[in-house]
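Subject: complex prediction, re-run

Hi both,

The earlier run crashed halfway through, so I resubmitted it with identical inputs.
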Amino acid sequence: MNNEEIDAVEHVDFVYTSANRVLHWIRALVVTGLAITGFYIASPFLSPGESTDQLVYAEWVFWHVLLGFVLLSAGLLRIFLFFFGKDSSRELRSLKDMFSIKSWIIQLKSYFFIGELKKKGMYGPLQFFSYFMITVMVVLASLTGLILYVHIYHSGIGGLLYEPMRTLEVLMGGLATVRLLHHITMWGFLIFIPIHVYMVVWSAIRFKHGGLDVMFTGYDYHLIKNKKKKSK
Amino acid sequence: MNGFNSMFEKATERIRILSSLEPTQKESIETMLDKKGYDRRDFMKWAASITAMLSLPSQFTPLFADAAKLADRLPLIWLHMAECTGCSEAFIRSDAPTVDSLIFEHISLEYHETLMAAAGWQAEENLEHAMKKYEGKYILLVEGGVPTAMNGMYLTLGAQAKTGLSLVQEAAEKAAAIFSIGTCASFGGIQAAAPNPTGAKGVDKVVGKPVINVPGCPPSAANIVGTLMHFLLFGTLPALDRYSRPKWAYGNRIHDLCERRGHFDAGEFVESFGDDGAKEGWCLYKQGCKGPYTFNNCSTERFNQHVNWPIGAGHGCMGCSEPNFWDTMGPLEKPLDSYLVKGLNKTVDNIGTALLSATVLGIGAHAVASIFMNNNDESEG
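This time it finished cleanly. Structure:
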């Protein structure tokens, strides 16, 4: 026991580049905005009730579309950075790790208080899988959103995308299904967010890592115990 | 040659060919209309309206008038599959006979189970005779979905108990053009709703030829006649969307040209049927209107001599001209689709809320467990 304590040293780990951190918070804000405006669009709960000059619903749609395009761009950029960013090698290592059953067991056990969590790459396999699924959600939400978009704005990018989006619409089984899929993706985000926030805080406490810091400063401050543990 | 001229040439040529064909009826369409009380002026007004509906310039009006006069040159065969005859009924039952329905009844309708006098063996013979005599020339109109399960045995017709499947395939093979009239013929319709025990399908799924879909439950008479007139005048398929629906009729959503659209954008919604909003004619979106997902021209064309249409009468659109509308558009008076989960109707929002609650509970349980777990592992971490 004593030895271990002596070996422990302060360790600073650079995890996320500024681009990735900024994109993360953009996504967090934008998804929140999209969920609120989206709920209004699905079931409008405010009504001016006085004059048709105040286009309340149309304004909500406008903000939803605007935020949607921000999410689309932020999502595309993040996917690009995953493969070609400065820090992408560690993320790509996690991708490989996702196919290791042993790593899955280690991570699942650690969440049930059995043993320590040792990640090979940036994320554990379960963590990587859930981030992967949320990326799929962003892509699906953006695509279904674009399909719905081309039916309300017909010029500019809406006109340009009209025909390809109609093809996708038919593949998905009509506009009603597209709308339903779009609605389901929103629930995907809503369920992901509390789990995500909880797991970040919990892991930071449990495993004594700077889990909360990484998305603000980019650095993970933690103690490193012995020389055997590889430092990156 | 520009687009207008080439279209005009094509139509003129087509009329020349049509007029060289033998008329199938003794009485000309002009005389028939005159006898029924439609003078030339009414007829020309009708031709102008058809031209406008198909988004063609007014120079085409005389061509449509000529084409309509030659409508008796093209024999029609109308087959009934798994359906309710609502499309035929909606078409032929108008408060006063319109030029559309008069022409339709006058032209050489070789076989139509609802309208023909023949029955039994005689009817069968009429059909076979027509298919032989006008081989490669007749227009086939199909109403109703085609059951395909059990080799089509869910639908047998006539004295020889032919299956609907074999009948429609046989008739399609020798047809010059095939139109699916109504949602059932186009996409299978209500009998194709899950779990679809009879394996009902749209006509285009069972024949190997291009089919023009004119969906709707029923489609408006204008859409049926317009599609027919287009074929009559040009002899080709009109511009079609990805579900093979003519773009001139199904290019816009109901929502795009809805008379209540202003209230939608303003956020003024009917909260329950019969409330003040309903009396003011506000938007029916919250009452389950499926206009935003449905492509059709009901909002401009309307029904029953353009008198009214569902949304005008205060009920939302139910999306009847879309594929699988019975499965994807329900429930009719709720905005969001719902599913039977353990015998109860649940929307995605119900399921989402339940899952989110479960998530929060799980997080809570895990957090509480974390407090009570002693910090054995801490030395490792």
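Confidence is low (pLDDT under 50) at residues 1-5, 227-232 of chain A.

- K.
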